[in-house]
């Protein structure tokens, strides 16, 4: 049967690549930095420009489709995931990396219909790695099929997480309690690429066994979520149970057993949901 979303997925890949060129070019010149929710929640003109480029390219071909874009939501657009075909866009995942020229930056484009992810595209533009996943069709990096790690022993595992952009002392305390607990299992180590999307692609690629974060947004993880499940991994909420893309909490792992083991170490909290916040 023909793939109903083939053309859309091809457009997502093509547009992510174009967006990557814009991001790489912007890294060669000085970047003027603005802030959003707090002094460490950064945004640049390139984030906004790339989001407009992606939205415009999609609108030209699919005028009826909806969007959830990080910078549009920051500008006051609603963050609503309906049953309609919806493009979930993070124009630069890893803006802080981008500002500092720390070399992990991604363009993340997820596409959902009936609230189900149909495809995900994450372009790690400085590494020139195009990660793609189609529901039921597998996960790939530059055309090579991805498979999560088969490591079942948590003590042989490496885990990704991030510190996020909240500096609320209670949140920082929980993040460090979780970090100490995960390190002390002991695991082989804890890493963070500085982008949720790439962290999830690392789980899909089998480089790390798991990634968890509280405080991310739907646009950080929508595309990466499909990469993980299509590579054979699992997604959960950090308190167990199914992941809710709007809840700002995610645990991605190579297996249910490893995910369940990590759950025991994560000090969870509940940020304001993406679909509850009027704007960021
Ligand atoms: O703002 P941005 O660079 O698109 O996305 C960022 C994430 O990918 C990062 O991993 C996370 O820790 C930050 O909280 C933020 O959400
Ligand atoms: Mg992001
Ligand atoms: Mg971003």
Could you explain how this protein is built, in words?
It is built from 8 helices and 14 strands. It is of the alpha+beta class. Strands 3-4-5-6-7-8-9 form a 7-stranded mixed β-sheet, with helices on both faces. The model has no long low-confidence stretch (mean pLDDT 96). Bound molecules: L-MYO-inositol-1-phosphate and magnesium ion (MG) (2 copies).
What would the average pLDDT be, to the nearest integer? 96
The fraction of residues assigned to DSSP E strands is 15-25%
Total count of strands: 14
What structural class is derived from the secondary structure elements? alpha+beta
Strand order of the main beta sheet, please?
Answer: 3-4-5-6-7-8-9
Spatial shape? globular
Q: What's the SSE pattern? A: HEEHEHEHEEEEEEHEHEHEEH
Indicate the low-confidence ranges by residue numbers.
Answer: none
Distance between the termini: 42 Å
Give the radius of gyration.
Answer: 17 Å
Question: Total number of helical segments?
Answer: 8
- Largest sheet composition: 7 strands, mixed
The kinds of small molecule bound in this structure are: L-MYO-inositol-1-phosphate, magnesium ion
Helical fraction equals 25-40%
List keywords for this structure.
single chain, 280 residues, alpha+beta, 34% helix, binds L-MYO-inositol-1-phosphate, binds magnesium ion, magnesium, Inositol-1-monophosphatase
């Amino acid at each position: 049967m023909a793939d109903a979303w083939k053309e859309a997925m091809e457009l997502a890949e093509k547009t992510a690549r174009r967006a990557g060129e814009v991001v790489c070019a912007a890294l060669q010149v000085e970047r003027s930095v603005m802030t959003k929710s707090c002094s460490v929640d950064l945004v640049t003109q390139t984030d906004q420009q790339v989001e407009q480029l992606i939205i415009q390219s999609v609108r030209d071909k699919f005028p009826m489709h909806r969007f959830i874009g990080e910078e549009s939501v920051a500008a006051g657009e609603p963050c609503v995931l309906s049953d309609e075909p919806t493009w979930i866009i993070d124009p630069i995942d890893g803006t802080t990396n981008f500002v500092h020229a720390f070399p992990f930056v991604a363009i993340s484009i997820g596409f959902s219909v009936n609230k189900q992810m149909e495809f995900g595209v994450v372009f790690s533009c400085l590494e020139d790695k195009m990660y793609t996943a189609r529901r039921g069709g597998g996960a790939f990096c530059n055309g090579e099929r991805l498979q999560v790690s088969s490591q079942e022993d948590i003590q042989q595992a490496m885990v990704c997480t991030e510190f996020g952009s909240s500096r609320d002392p209670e949140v920082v305390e929980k993040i460090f309690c979780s970090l100490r607990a995960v390190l002390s299992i002991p695991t082989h180590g804890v890493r963070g690429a500085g982008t949720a999307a790439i962290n999830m692609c690392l789980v899909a690629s089998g480089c790390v066994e798991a990634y968890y974060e509280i405080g991310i947004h739907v646009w950080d993880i929508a595309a990466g979520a499909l990469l993980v499940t299509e590579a054979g991994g699992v997604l959960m909420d950090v308190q167990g149970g199914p992941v809710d893309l709007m809840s700002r909490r995610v645990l991605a792992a190579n297996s249910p057993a490893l995910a369940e083991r990590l759950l025991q170490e994560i000090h969870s909290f509940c940020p304001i949901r993406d679909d509850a916040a009027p704007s960021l």
